[in-house]
Write the structure tokens for this entry.
Amino acid sequence: MIDTFLLNDFYSIDTEITENSTVSATIILNEKHPIFKGHFEQMPVVPGVCQTQIIKELLQKNSNTNLTLTKGDNIKFLATIVPTQHKIIQLEIVYKLLENGYVVDAKFYYENTTFTKFKGTFKIN
């Protein structure tokens, strides 16, 4: 069974296309989720750890394996994802299968705004 902690609660998937080692998804954020009361109630933002978890969960869903992040080579938060302003966002994951896991290059974006760029490695459990 694939571990998903945030899927269908913190976020849902509107559309998803997997093609040539690339996952492209439209994500709908639950702006009423309790995480936003602590991060931050007056100005909610999507925590970086949640963004990383979403990447992991979509990759797990598409590979049908449980994964563990082993290395975050380069994670850049370029713009804040505010769920009351950006309830719908795009996620693109480009991955390469290795012997024991995946090397991943991902980004969260909407139209011309890139929110986050992620490069990292996930180990197959």
Remarks:
- DSSP finds two helices and six strands in the chain.
- The mean pLDDT is 95.
